Amino acid sequence: MRLLIFGGTVFLSRAVAAEAARRGHEVLCAARGESGSVPDGTRLVRIDRDDPSTLDQLVGERFDAVVDTSLLSYTWTADALRVLAGTTGHWLFVSSVNVYADHRKRGQRPGAPLLPPRREHATLADREADPQLYGGIKVASENAVLDAFPDAFIVRPGLISGPGDHTDRFGYWPMRFARGGQVLVPDVPDQPAQYVDVRDLAAWMVDAAEQRLGGVFDAITPAVPLPSLLAEIADAVGFAGELVPAAPEKLRAAEVRPWSGPRSLPVWAPDEVYGMLDHDAEPATEAGLRHRPVADAARAALDHERALGVDRDRKAGLTPVEEAELISIVGN
Q1: pTM of the predicted model, to two decimals?
Q2: What pLDDT score does 331 carry?
Q3: Which domains does the chain have, with CATH numbers?
């Protein structure tokens, strides 16, 4: 199989490229080549998606499948389809559960109402200013892909974890439990939690390319209560300390952020978005997505944390000083 992957230098796109190369496929990675190296056994084609003219070098190239991981740009996807749709056998697009219009309703699956499509190119700053922008761009991009490839494979992940994760969210917890001592946790027994390990998602995407699997799927594990997930992570890394639960209202009053960012408790979420963390995982499971045990995902995330340096400045989580101060203020 001849496979073109947009990206291939970081996280999910790199994991897909590495898995495809491991299986013996010919893999071209279309990227600027500035974020990192491509995996062994693959080849870099220097493409700058902000400059559509750089796609011209791909005109006439034939691929069995294309993997598109466009993040915040409808135009990136539209440009790629314009150049490659006529010479590509199958298209795989990485979308997001952010496409859904209702983030309160639990148990949704593809077919539920989506946000209005937005044919825009945006920046991370734009996304911060407009919470619906990311999802709307993904909806527009999905539509463009399905117009060109009615049997395309579209995955809508939630939280992606595992080696290469640059968000510092899931990895905060195995790192924190491994350090031991008193650990501040959100007291949210009713909050659901879902994620997908990047290695499992990458393997499934290569399966889909090989099998020309089509359809739209929410790529996530079955939902579990967040406290249960945290307990499994703690067990996996040998935690022997003490949990200090804190009520959400106390955390908010102490200016602790949910989900991500500085001074946050990652993966804790406001109840108005519980639906985003409780999608129906059965369609993806029936279509072949397999999930490794939580313990495996947790230990791999911890290895990645240690490789990056556990004392680094983080994009998400609490510093030891912040956590100690908060425990004295908000701990139950």
Answers
A1: 0.96
A2: 66
A3: 2-157 (3.40.50.720), 172-193+223-274+293-330 (no CATH)
